[in-house]
Amino acid sequence: MPSPAGPPAEARMPRWLPRAVILVLALVACFQLGSWAFHQLIGLLVNILIAFFLALAIEPAVARMAARGMRRGFATFLVYLGVLVATAGFVALLGSMLAGQIVDMVEGFPKYLDSVIGSINDTFHTELSRLSIQDSLLHSDWLQKYVQNSATGVLDVSATVLGGLFRLLTIGLFSFYFAADGPRLRRALCSVLPPGKQSEVLRAWEIAVAKTGGYLYSRGLMALISGIAHYILFAFLGVPYAPALAVWVGLVSQFIPTIGTYLAGALPMLIAFTIDPWYALYVLGFVVVYQQFENYVLQPKLTSRTVDIHPAVAFGSVIAGTALLGAVGALIAIPAVATLQAFLGAYVKRYELTEGADASTSSRPRRRVRLPGLR
Fold first, then answer.
1. Which terminus of the chain is more solvent-facing, meaning fewer CB atoms within 10 Å of its CB: N or C?
2. Cα angle vertex 275, ends 273, 281, to 5°?
3. Buried (b) or exposed (e) across 176-187, using 16+ Cβ within 10 A?
């Protein structure tokens, strides 16, 4: 008796299907595990990125000291000690200056408030008074809720402060190791690359060092010039707290590119308005004029050899960096983009423009044109 026929060939499960299903599930599990680990370590990765750019910023000073025979670790320690002492001295000087001025501001706040209310009453023909405004604020629901939330959030503030200190310590340690062991780190990275790629990595590293250090140094110099210029204006107008306002304008205007000058000028304008509304207009006019002077005269001369990128590119990079990494991304966006631009400029091949490629020559006789900067 013949045996029953088996299932048709087209109905059988392919032998590779179970293994394919297991492989897909394993890949999905690995992706989920990697995504979870990345989100858990994103804070550490951002700290390492900040530390890397700080190490790039101090690399020229460390390399110059190491070239004179000093051990690289000790040279890095001296650079960090100098930065720490300078920062502590600046904070102490600024803090002592601001402490006295804040006390004076608190004591004179009722007078400034009366001046502002008087200007509003004269301009808009109102009958506001400081006592009525204070009474409405003290009895407002939002102020009571704010006080209650502030009282319950003391522990959160303490945890935030401790977390910030731990983050600063982490960044400092990583940046110290990156700067002290820079040559060893480069050798370890190049040892796993083919010989043809090693020179490109070293070239990119040198460009990153030059652009990051040049960005910080040029910004610091422009902050100093901006602070001195605005201090002269504030002292001439008799605006209170002129030194503190000058430091504020210098730092904010340079480390928030493109729009930083206008943001920094808002506080001096407000204080100048309490003295005389015309003084606020004088400060606004000076801020606008100085911004044009900085954009078209000062900045091109100081950054022509360091981070010479178009203002629109700089502004776009700051927005993109802020969207990705917040305030940290805004600070490191410009040196990162400048490094990428310089690296592409060194390795991307450029060609001579053909006839008619330049719109500015449309009314001129047709000829081959070579624009400046194109090689």
1. N
2. 40
3. bbbbbbbeebee
